[in-house]
Every structure is written in structure tokens, then in C-alpha cells.
Design goal:
Order of helices and strands: HEHEEHEEHEHEEHEHEEEEEHHHHHHHH
Radius of gyration: 25 Å
Oligomer: single chain
Strand content: 15-25%
Largest sheet: 5 strands, parallel
Helix content: 25-40%
Shape: elongated
Distance between the termini: 41 Å
Strand order of the largest sheet: 8-9-10-11-12
Length: 394
């Protein structure tokens, strides 16, 4: 999943959410969520049980929400058509923890062209120690952005998710959803609704949460088919309150992050939390043109997903280098490692191709290995393979 994270092409915005308490088992709402078994369709069920006044209906997850009386709840629990029934729980945004006011005064907003450390870190290959200049070539043009934060009731969040899905299906533009919300214990309605977005082709980025606990007990952060993002510090360490666990796919800046304030259009505030890093990581996954042929992309995806794939030693040499270049472009590092190993094995047989690849991506060990073999290659062959800035020194 971590490798696939870098393959995605999405963008989002910065949002500020509210504290993230666990869902109470003693909530007092009279509104309930009802999920039907797959063999029973929700519209047909409601038509047959017309005494139930549904407030929300979600066909894609075969569920509805309604205000129910105790006798109706008892009857539904005994109904063989019902898969699950639960009270409309309280859901909240992943916590944004205000930082110490003294620290906020120390780290004043940095004027253009300098950018706060959290944004600058996204394009840096190593940790940074201060705000620095940031240069970017695009700003997410052509990508629709949906931000879902904490709301009082689970049903409201589900309505928001289904609104996003409806909008996406109406235009089919590249889209991303940044979620700073969660519920514990895990919730089948929230997870099935989120999975619908993924199946439609919408990229979903979710904040891990700020309880310093394993995300395996939180929806939707525990899901495998989304990107779950934890919070890191300026020293590239896990922020002390960030949730963790094998379901966390990546960490992004989440401590002392410059965000929007509430005192005016130009006001700002410095805060910490996984609500800050989730949209930051989404912005790092910026639109990228898919210039490779279908065969190369299919091979790349085959190696990225945890499933049986073709033996890399059986790939023709031209397909191997296409795959290697695609893996470098989309930062699918697990595939990069496989390709480099194979290129080392073939360096003596294909020195020019190996030399060009290793020079372009700065792999000095492959360069050193292939250079001696280039000395015996005819000029016309080398000139065809190497670009001018390499062929002339050769």
C-alpha cells in the first residue's frame, strides 16, 4: 500500500477539525441506522414497511436512517432481513490540538516567497530545520477537492460521502476526498460508504487520529483501500499524539502547522494534529500525466499490488527499462528495487541502456559497473542510446 500511495495523482486542501472523542455507547438519539441483507433491497423493504418513515436512504450500502420507537427497534432486531442496526452515533473530526501560545508567537507566519515548514517538507528529500522557499509547477488544476470534517452525527457524515459520490458520477473528473473524521469502535456504515468512493475511482486520504493508539480500532482510518496518514514533527519523528499501526500508510507534517484563523480573512493560527497532515499529504500527490503505454502501467500495477505478478527475469529488456522508468516516475520504490537488481545482472549485456538509466537516476554503483563495458561499444550504437550530454563525454 505504501508503494501505491506514491502512484496516486491527487490534490486536496488544508482544513481544521475538532477534537476526536470515542463514540459513546450510551448516546440518547432516537435516530437509528439500519442495514439490510444483500438479498433485500432498501426501497422494496421501505415500501413493504411503510410505517417506517426513513429520514435518509442510501441505496449503495443498502441502508436507511429513521427515527424509531422502542417497539419498532425490537421488531427490526428480530426481522430476518436486517443485517445490522445501531443508534446514530456521534462522530468527530480527528483532533487539531492548539499549540502553546508562546510557541505560536515564536513561529510567526512567513511572508511569500517563503513557505511554512510543513509545505516545504513535502518536496524535500531530507528533513528541514526552518521555513524555506517552495517552487511548484501546478496547483491542482482540473482536480475536484472534497473536504469532510467532523460533524455531530454519523448519518451526516454518510450523507456527505454520498453527496461526493453523486457529484463525481455526474462529471467523472479526477477527484480526491480528504477526511478528518473517525469513529470508534469500527462502523460498518461509514466503512462501506467510504469503500464506495474508492470503487468509483475517487482517492480517499484519511487522518489517522490523535489518540496515541493503534488505528486498527477506528473507522475509516483502519481500512486498507484508502491512504491513512499519521502526523510527523519537523525532525521527521512521529508526533507524540499521532495514532499509529500497520494501517498507517505514510506520515506527513502535523506539528506546528500554519493554518487559517477565525478572526478575519487574513487571520492565521498555528496548530498540531493529524487533521493538519492528511490534506498536506493529499497536496503532495499532485496531478501527473500518465505518458506510459498501457502494458507498462499494467505491469507496474501488478508489482505494486500484493498479488502474484510476472517474473521480472522474464521481461524483455525494453520492457524492463520502461518499467524501471515508470517506477522511478511514480516513486514505486519496491518496484525500483526489483528493477535495479535486474539491471545490475544485465549491465554487461546492455551497458549503454544501463549507463543511461543509472546516470539519470544517480546510481553510482551501476555507473561504475557498466562504464568499462561501454568502451568496446561501437560509436553509432552508443550515440543512438545515450543522450548528447552523455554521448559527447563518452
Amino acid at each position: 500500500m505504501l508503494c501505491f500511495t506514491y502512484f496516486l495523482a491527487v490534490i486536496s486542501l488544508v482544513l481544521v477539525a475538532h477534537p476526536y472523542p470515542a463514540v459513546s455507547a450510551t448516546t440518547t438519539s432516537e435516530k437509528y441506522l439500519v442495514m439490510l441483507k444483500p438479498v433485500v433491497k432498501v426501497q422494496a423493504f421501505l415500501k413493504q414497511n411503510n410505517h417506517i418513515m426513513a429520514i435518509d436512504v442510501w441505496d449503495s450500502i443498502n441502508s436507511f436512517a429513521a427515527t424509531l420507537q422502542p417497539n419498532e427497534i425490537t421488531a427490526l432486531r428480530k426481522n430476518p432481513s436486517i443485517e445490522a442496526i445501531a443508534e446514530d452515533g456521534i462522530i468527530s473530526g480527528t483532533a487539531t490540538i492548539p499549540t502553546n501560545p508562546l510557541l505560536s508567537r515564536v513561529r510567526q507566519p512567513t511572508p511569500t516567497p517563503l513557505w511554512p515548514w510543513g509545505v516545504a517538507r513535502l518536496i524535500s528529500n531530507k528533513p528541514i530545520v526552518k521555513d524555506q522557499q517552495l517552487t511548484y509547477q501546478h496547483a491542482g488544476r482540473g482536480v475536484d477537492i472534497y473536504v469532510l470534517g467532523g460533524v455531530p452525527k454519523l448519518s451526516k457524515s454518510i450523507n456527505g460521502i454520498h453527496y461526493v459520490r453523486k457529484e463525481y458520477r455526474s462529471h467523472q473528473r479526477p477527484s480526491v476526498v480528504s477526511m478528518s473524521l473517525g469513529i470508534s469502535p469500527p462502523n460498518v456504515w461509514l466503512e462501506r460508504s467510504t469503500r464506495m468512493l474508492v470503487r468509483d475511482g475517487i482517492h480517499v486520504v484519511v487522518a489517522a487520529g490523535n489518540s496515541n493508539k493503534d488505528v486498527g480500532f477506528t473507522s475509516p482510518a483502519r481500512m486498507q483501500d484508502i491512504i491513512t496518514v499519521g502526523a510527523s514533527t519537523i525532525r521527521d519523528r512521529r508526533w507524540h499524539l499521532s495514532n499509529y499501526g500497520p494501517q498507517v500508510d505514510i506520515f506527513a507534517p502535523g506539528e506546528f502547522i500554519l493554518s487559517a484563523g477565525i478572526n478575519g480573512l487574513n487571520s492565521n493560527h498555528i496548530e498540531s494534529g493529524t487533521s493538519m497532515e492528511s490534506p498536506s499529504e493529499s497536496s503532495d500527490l499532485a496531478p501527473t500525466s500518465l505518458t506510459e503505454d498501457a502494458s507498462t502501467l499494467e505491469t507496474l500495477v501488478g508489482y505494486i499490488y500484493p498479488r502474484r505478478h510476472s517474473d521480472i527475469e522474464l521481461l524483455p529488456i525494453d520492457e524492463l527499462f520502461k518499467l524501471a522508468e515508470a517506477a522511478e516516475k511514480y516513486e514505486a520504490f519496491c518496484v525500483v528495487s526489483l528493477c535495479k537488481t535486474r539491471i545490475r545482472q544485465l549491465g554487461a549485456d546492455y551497458p549503454a541502456e544501463s549507463f543511461r538509466y543509472s546516470f539519470k537516476h544517480d546510481y553510482p554503483d551501476i555507473l561504475s559497473m557498466t562504464t568499462p563495458f561501454l568502451l568496446d561499444q561501437p560509436l553509432d550504437k552508443v550515440v543512438k542510446i545515450l543522450p548528447p550530454h552523455l554521448a559527447i563525454p563518452w
